[in-house]
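Chapter summary example: a protein plus adenosine monophosphate.
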Amino acid sequence: MADDISKRIARFIEPFRVSPGSSVKLARDFDPGFKAGIERKKDGADLLKEGIELLTEYQARLAAQDTYGVLVVLQALDAAGKDGTIRHVMSGVNPQGVRVESFKVPSALELDQDFLRRYQERLPSRGQIGIFNRSHYEEVLVVRVHPENLLRQKLPAETREHHVWSRRYDAINDWERYLSENGFRIVKLFLNLSREEQRVRFLRRIDLPDHNWKFSAHDVEERQSWDAYQEAFSEMFSHTSTAWAPWYVIPADRKWFARTAAAAVIANALIEIDPQYPRLGDEALQGLQKAKLELEAEAPSGVAVDPSDPGESEGNESNGDTVVPAAPAEPAAQKQA
Ligand code: AMP
Ligand code: MG
């Protein structure tokens, strides 16, 4: 069964994966409206539910094993659905095992540090799923599209002026390889929204009073740089989709599809990690048996010695438990004279 699901997921996400080393042109290679043949939202909802259930189970094992961590990198233009994707995809997991980090315009302190520093400081630990809502990739996106951001970073002139972007791609690839070699799996998702769908979603934010808070005039201004962003995304995919941390371009014009696809890519990573509940060694198991005997000996009269022990059901058909017979002359401890 499990094998069947994992094969189905692997097949489903294959079209979204950016082959390492390929030269990407976003508009040519990826369609924001792609639905993978799933016609109805209802069918997508069933798939999403399945994905969320898988994530719930695997996250519990990831936390228990405490050996691997997962970093989900989420990039997109405004209104592509990053927040909603996080909310839906992570709806089943234990909040203790997840850590969401959002990255905004860097602070004065952050601008005084090397560009990867603030991302390094907010990585997940082993056993955790960390989600970067925006990420170190902003350093080759917004910073590239608006070069005044780079000036603010106060780099020495020679590092700012020569091949700064290709050196950043290399630094990011090296950093991600280092993390993956240390047990941290990196899952990179780009929510691919069409220009027209972004326009419609901005209008909805203006028209619906409950959505007004999400609207920002700055976002509409950024739309002017649409082509420059598409170019920066294409370059980023061409240089930073690696064997150890490939990019997945998620069609995002339909929210239900984007959420289903994002859940599937994260589930696939966890299936590949295949975390296991820890099993104890012989000595520790003997310790458990000793403690079990002690606890059983403390059972009050008339109750099951160990209600959760399946091995004790033999010969007792009433409730599956061994019952300590009530001792007739037992002194009542509370009523000591
Ligand atoms: P939001 O995610 O919509 O709350 O917006 C966060 C803003 O921070 C966006 O406009 C990003 O472009 C901006 N931002 C994030 N990271 C950086 C960065 N490294 N340099 C400059 N601006 C950034
Ligand atoms: Mg925004």
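Key point: Residues 99 and 130 are 5 Å apart (CA to CA).
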